[in-house]
User: Fold these one by one.
Assistant:
Number 1:
Amino acid sequence: MQAFDYKFQKFEPLKSFKKAPELEVYVPGHRTCAGCGPALNYRLVAKAAGKETIFIGPTGCMYVANSSYLCTPYACSWIHAQITNGGAVASGIEAAFKVLARKGKHTGAFPNVIVMAGDGGTVDIGLQAMSAMMYRNHKVLFLCYDNESYANTGIQTSPTTPYGAATTFTPPGKEIPEGKVLFPKDPPQLVIGGHPAVKYVATTTVAHPLDLMNKVRKALTYEGPTFLHMLAPCPKGWLFDEKLTREMARLAVETGMWSMYEWEDGVYKYTNVPKKYKPVSEYMKHQGRFAHLKPEHIAKMQAFIDERVKAVKERVAIPIPTPKQTA
Amino acid sequence: MAKEQMMTGCRAAAEGAKAAEVEVICSYPIRPYTAIMMELSKMVANGELNAEFVHGEGEHAQVSVVLGACASGARAFTGSSGVGVTYAMEVYSPMAGGRYPAQMSIADRTLDPPGDFGSEHTDAMSTRDQGWLLGWACSPQEVYDNTLIAYRVGEDHRVMLPQMVCQDGYFISHIPDKVTLGDQSQVKEFLPPYRPIGPLSTTHPVSHGPQIRPDQGAPMDAMRAQTFLAVPKVIEEATADFNRIFGRNYDPFVEQYKLEDAEIAFFIQGAHANTCRSSVDRLRSQGVKAGMARLRWVRPWPTHQLANALGHVKAVGVIETSTSYGGAMRGGNLIHELRASLYDLDERPLVTSFMGGLGGETIWPKDFDYMAKVLLQAVKEKKIRTYVQWLGM
């Protein structure tokens, strides 16, 4: 293929939160719950990306609670995808703009193509389409707003729901006292582990808005696929006071329940690593979904997290080599 | 005018897509339609076609990719066979409901189990209520022609609907036949560029496919039903233009072969119509007034055209190449809609059906002789003995 200038957009990092663009691209008018983490997440992502963006919204909270006919909150172009196929619809959009640009039918800047998928639409029913898009080297940012459940359908367990959480499909009972017995999937590691076209993966939370916006902007400067995993606490699903949404995300980082990092072409860079991790009980005690747990269950969770945070140091020291990006 | 060449139905579909200058193609391998994508991938690799060739990870993704492409304003093309067609089922209604006029080229194959490569129309027929335009060719030439006609109809602003262009696996998809390709000026005169309505854009923000309230659903469904009422006129115009520009002689909806004075008629779609036609000739040489009506479009269903074409016949035998287990007529799909189409006539033909060509079996001339015998008997007895019979069993 001959080289062609597709006019990909360029983004500089924001020096401070005050320097963020004033323009809101995700505007009021939606019907999300009070304290909704994913809605805050959406607003920050849209602000960072700007209006020359096309959002792909697979079915989930951010479809159902946002996109009321004739009053959607998107000030840029947006398209619904099935919960199954966010990555595939995005691939088609990116491919279309590439060929239309080559034929002179699209002349402006290349759109930021961003999939805004929930955890189910990313690593459960949407995994196949997400992975294939990553593999095929489309210029698409796939973003997982992780509220750790199928929240829109009434809080059912998803692959990122933590061990011990009560959901409407994992109710604690006499036979199964801890509710959810499985440990969660690790979305960024799934992406990093098997997609040579991907050169940038990062994690962040809604409690770190400047970090979040800069990771979006950095991801959008890559000419290939990128992935962001964002912790977006859900007051209704996790059963905490709705004014504590950001506090929950902050505590997740402070207890090691969530790690903040960037992975750039094989090299890990961790940020916000606490000098000493707080016990996970500090995080869990605010959330009704963990209220039924006995000390032995919390100890099991602590052991899991203790193992996981070990990787923080190891990964900084031992970068994983990956092939250079082509095309 | 280009000269006649020998080519398979798969190659003809690829030539049709190339002539239409499709812009985004999404592939996934499954026999027998695969050869369409093999041809197109060569055209893209050689630089004969300026298109994005996306290797989908399955048929569900194929339809999803062309949905995204079509929503962005690109002419998009995909295809499948058999269980691949049904694997994509979720995405058919968003395609049609979103009014994205992409095209899917189907080379029919049986559904599982057990695994069988043979042709059978159940794959694409099972999508007939998803709001797509749907029709069958009976020769590689018609595959090429239908590829262009379907884009023209589907992309018409009075229509804006996706299209399934079907051909029988192997009988059409893999047996070469004479095909005359159009030249560039003919294609240009017939098929204008795709003009999307409200595509995804960086300068004119749009929202595609938001949530609605229950009370908003029925009016939208009614609009789609209304659209389908307008499609026949568009098909008629497009077919007339196609016949004029390319020098063909298609009836828009129903090929009518020796029906004028027919006493009995076969009602059929797809490849087996070729055997049917020669069987009609043979039966006529034996003094049987036989004829054939071949369906070109299943959606929209040509209700009145069929009533006009078949109303005067005494008995019709529907040749069913798809299954409708537990259906009203206990066999296939077409008989239900044909009977409904004839119901309001003052005097209507007797209608029975024959399951044939299932699993990729050939429907032989002797089968047509047998079916003629059953139909003549029905005429004599003034009633049918059964709704359905299975041929060759």
Number 2:
Amino acid sequence: MGSVTATVAPPTDSNVTRWFRTFGAIVGSGFRRHATYRQAAVAGVVTNSVFGFLRYYIFVAAAGAAGRVAGYDRAQLATFVWVGQGLLAVVAIWGWTELADRIRTGEIAADLLRPIHPVTSYFATDLGRAGFASLSRLLPPVLIGLLFFDVYLPRRWATLPLFAFSVLLAVVVCFGCRYLVNATAYWLQDVRGPLILWTLCSGVLAGLYFPLGFLPGWLEAGLRYGTPFPSLLQIPLDVLVERDPAAVQFGLVGVQLGWAVALLALCRLVQRRAERRMVVQGG
Amino acid sequence: MSVIEMRGLRKEFTVRIKAGRLRREKRTVTAVDGVDLRVERGEMLGYIGPNGAGKSTTLKMLTGVLMPSAGEARVCGLRPVAERTRLALRIGVVFGQRSQLWWDLPLRDSFELLRHVYHVPAGEHAARLARCRSLLDLDEFLDTPVRQLSLGQRMRGELTAALLHGPEVLFLDEPTIGLDVVSKQAVRGFLAELGRAGDTTLVLTTHDLADIERLCRRLVVIDHGRVVHDGSIAALHSRYGSRRMVVAELDTALPEPPALPGAPLQRVEADGHRLVFVLESATVAEVVAGLAGLAALRDIAIVEPDIEEVVARLYRAPAEVGEQVWVTE
């Protein structure tokens, strides 16, 4: 049998442009796929808003007569809650089992038959989804906050761009976590267990149920640097409400960046391991 | 150089079987058991076998989504698993029971996205799409989201999606499963057209043997993971003794079964008014002449051998029809 040595084209400009064009096209398709379900988006906004009121009043009660708790005043708590309610859908902590379902049914084969790495392709789709959610799910709760409450508006010029970058990183970190949870389906088939664990941990440890500042300092620090969860919500929101000095703000985003890179690398590693032992289900 | 080569290709799965309340026993199941095969450029190969014979497993190994346990495979000169993404640019795959289209997107958007994923120049993409649109009648549902398409429409979409990047090899895993007669004809007609052009190699697995008869000159039958036949359909018929038959309708039944040299009587139907002979060495003319001397003939029909019959016999008793047999012409 004649062997053929296939050569890899060196990374030229056109290769890089081509890659970005493909990536952009998949991002766009992710946006359009989610834009199809507009009524679901409206239902989501209503739910997020109702829970927004609930959370705000609980946090304010925790702040008590002094009006301050764990480094937040009332206005900062309002921003924390209402922007947080909007970010929930952008980051998409809950409800993504597409990869696990496709592994379980064998549909994953179609993903593997494309000339693009599955992690890259799912990641691009998720960015598109997050883009649509930023328009449809983030703005309404923020508007409600602005209309009905005395919210905290950032005072440092760098805060808003840093917040935007921090949200992007939160999306990346959350994607990485969800991909890994879903990827357990390669080994387990049934991901309900890991999914419940993830839902529980992400809600509590991301700062959704209460800001992590409510916890003792050593525990908060441990969670912040030792786990990816605070990078999902707590850090972007802390950056926005300027709870810490500017240098700490940048430091926190740096922590997020570290988690984002590490998790994407881990996703690729896990995917490679999975493919070595994979059984594509079904005939 | 062959476009597809398999040497001793083998896949074993470990399954756990309940062997008591808590105990599970490990058992190894061999799905593909040392397949050697070469497919040349432009060939249209029918790859058939009963359920669980190892057809889909072979296809999964050739497309790089499943790691072989032993042996090796080359497709377009590439190692499927190790060079999967590069291979993906050169092959197209259609799974009858799976979809490669995006569920929420209209067909048109799926095709546009595939253009970017496969880096196809806009002009080439437009030309191929235009051809598929006319041959497969896509226009009426091009803007419908995939989730709303009927199975027949979706399958036409799947075929288009698999061909838009101009693959050298097209793998089709039961592409006509569940389709109605009209859609089946559309799919077969399209594949026949593709085969006539001669630059795409086609590997087709199916349970519908009409697909094979219509499309493939070469037929590989696999059972229990081993190749039990490799050759033309005619070779299969001659090897397993399938013959043409003559069905004679008589005005009056004969008192005793007639004995015609070279054409044994296979069965008697309709109270002796219909006789079925198997053509062994006799010709149709000889049978007709022999019968005309015995009774008044009302009608004569010649029945071509039925491939389903042969294959059914092959599936039922592969050992009886021979161990690992290669029939080449």
